[in-house]
Amino acid sequence: MTDILKAIELRKDYRLPRGKTLRALDNVSLTVRSGEVLGLVGESGCGKSTLGRCLLRLTDLTSGTILFEDQDISRTNERALRPVRRQMQMVFQDSYAALNPKRRIGDLLAEPLRVHPDKNGQKRSRQVIEARLDELMDLVSLPRSALARYPHEFSGGQRQRINIARALALSPRLIVADEPVSALDVSVQAQIVNLFTDLKEQLGLTYVFIAHDLAVVRQISTRVAVMYLGAIVELGDTDTVMQRPAHPYTAALISAVPEPVIGASDRRILLHGDVPSPVSPPSGCRFHTRCPKAEKRCSEEAPLLRSIDEGHEVSCHFPNL
Amino acid sequence: MSGAQDMAPPGPWRSAFRALSRNRAAMVALGVLGLMVLLSLLAPFYAHHIAHTDPFRANVAGSFMLDGKTIDIMQPNDNPLHLGLTPAGPTWNPSAYMLGSDSQGRDVAARLLYGGRISLLISFAAAALCIVIASVVGILAGFFGGIVDMVLSRIMDIMWAVPVYLFAISLSIVTISDGLHIGPIKLEADNLIIPIAIIALVYMPYAARPIRGRVMALRNADFVMAARSLGVPRWRILVVDILPNVASSIVVLTPLLAAFALLTESALSFLSIGVQAPTASWGTIIQDGEGLIYSRPMVAIAPGLAIVIVVVALNVLGDGLRDALDVRETSKRGA
Contact B168/B199 with Cβ under 8 angstroms? Predict the structure, then answer.
């Protein structure tokens, strides 16, 4: 399996008033392999959306390197980035906010096709664009009549299909989906997750799938990265991470997933306190303030992400093995 | 596909237009405004063919015919000493001094219509100029942010620090003595462009600030982020994604600006630093009526009433536009 996207020591600081800085991403390194679905999980505010946006260069990095198919895109300007943008697309959480309310669906979906030239460097003709729009509607199972309508006329699930169709317009290789189903009804969630799975099979896509719902991530992803306070704490195959979580935080997250089993709640690991502020993160291991296994060393020395098994990495001094 | 075309829903502008045309208050306001404009345009016709008078020529010694009787325009004062002269009062007859005469023997009704031309012209032109400048400033500041926003916002802050009327009066006094001469631009003191430009300028920050805020909110909207991730160039995002969404804010602001412009124009003209004689505007007519306020109040009341009617109509129309375009709804959902 080749690597489609490689992130090396990404750091993103936001400057706050009175000289403070918020470190949203702290030395995040990550590899996305071609054809996989990498799930990115963590509580809200842990930096998973920021990471998603940085990977697509929608937010500028403070430092670090991003390689897309071995091409360094971390400092490229917007104009030079344009051909790369065709290859990587984003699907947003809020399906309504992601569609310009003043434009018809057909117009919205045609936008990328008008802006980018085709394979031969030619401008696409209207007939070519219209044919492609019909194809896209078929791909996401929406009627072609939807092209003449406005975003507000659709339900959340339908709008998310439209967003997916737009992301697919230029036949990208990588899609970063930022909590694409968390704003939807549970029944609709399943349909959209299935749509993502089908499209991946059909078009050979690679996903970075951001979510806070572990059930969704377990269903769709092949690998999982768990984030806490701007850093990756555990990374590995979905089955391994879900069944044998090595990091106490991952273990706590997994135990919080409701299970339809009597007595399951007895095994829940309760974390105390709130997530510390990323403006002044704790010393040493960032999780030590809430960790049930924390010892003296944890507050002094920050653990590094290290491999504990084939393709299973964790940043903890005392991982569950 | 033709079936789908027939079923195509109306665009946002078309549905806003429909909503506006169903709003009775806004339609009445629009009708009133149209009537005022029409009456003003008919001023020469009224003066020459109905009232048979020249509203710009003093006529202190003249007289007019009413019901077969000849009436002097200037009549002896009815105070106990019969000192001085009082102009003729309203006859309520359109053919002769319907609203009476001013202190120079001119027909107030005819002057009111001529004044309407100038007042409405200045207020509409100033509102149009103001909204154009404010849109450019607000969109540039909001979209580009950073240093562009810094410079433009500080300039607006400085303008804001000066009270609107004080600012307008100061500028008017400077330009009233010998007009405006900047490089190749030479405007005489009685040129209408001067009050138009002054009014447009002093209200610019009031319109530019909300436009800037709207653009800044839109710049961070998900659909703009989506456009960037699709590789849409920046200028195209501005034109196709941002402009259509601020356009409604701009449309809503315009009638309100026209109302403010009308009030300011009248105030400046009342103070003799707006429209210059012999040109009449509603403000100058009120000033003509100031000295006659006890004996012939109609001279001041008529233009005052005209101003009130137009300002109220503009505000009602503005409210109707805001409801029809649903400006708040999009900003709420965009958050």
Answer: yes
